Amino acid sequence: MRWQLALLCALATATPASAVTMSFDFGNNARLTNLSGWNDVFHASGSPTDTLFVVVDENGNAVPGVTLVETDPFYIVGQPSQGGSESPSGAAAGFPVDATDDYYFGHTGAFGGGDDNPTGGFKLTGLDQNLAYDFTFFSSRTGVNDNRETAFSVTGANVGSGVIATSNNDSEVLSLNGITPDGNSEISIAVMAGPNNDNGNGFYYINLMQVSTAIPEPTTGLLLALAGGFAAFGRRRR
């Protein structure tokens, strides 16, 4: 019975590991989210976004090995404006206004000195292949009368996709959960106009992104081991 007692003691003392959340604010360098736990993503006029070689979690601690790399530039001719939500509510209520107000955007066809830009994208590298990641996106452009629906696709070893009704959005978010990294420990994110987008320039937007992962609780493995052990014990007694 010693091994059963050892397993029971370990089960009783085990504590769940905590989740890690990484928050990214995309947009104007005049409206950064200067809060601990947020990563600001912006570019100099005419230049793609610099790689974020240090990504911090919700506590302001660097997440080992993780970087954010822009792979498909958004509009970069000038700084994006600050036309997103200034009154986040509903599912977006917990986000800071500095993150919901500005954005990265792209367009179909030439616009404002920029060439055709039907998609924008980036990737997270250095992720843990043993974990699944949950993505939350917020997309908002206020003061408009057309449909600027924005579509998101997240690709690792599996794929998730969805849309946000961006026009005058204060509350809607998009959650794409359970995405696992590919063989290179990467997950790619693509942003584009949604199928219902009827804007003449096909404008699409990303204001912010949160990425979270729940590390498996040690108690799960212990429960399985305990069940298997008792089953084996029962077979021996029979």
UniProtKB/TrEMBL annotation:
Record the organism: Bythopirellula polymerisocia
Q: What Pfam families does the annotation carry? A: PEP-CTERM (PF07589)
- Which keywords describe this protein according to UniProt? Signal
Q: Which domain of life is it from?
A: Bacteria
User: What region holds the Ice-binding protein C-terminal domain?
Assistant: 214-238
| Taxonomic lineage of the native organism | Bacteria, Pseudomonadati, Planctomycetota, Planctomycetia, Pirellulales
The signal peptide annotation in the UniProt record is: 1-19
User: Is Repressor among this UniProt entry's keywords?
Assistant: no
Q: Does the keyword Thylakoid apply?
A: no
InterPro entries in the record: Ice-binding_C
Q: What is this protein called?
A: Ice-binding protein C-terminal domain-containing protein
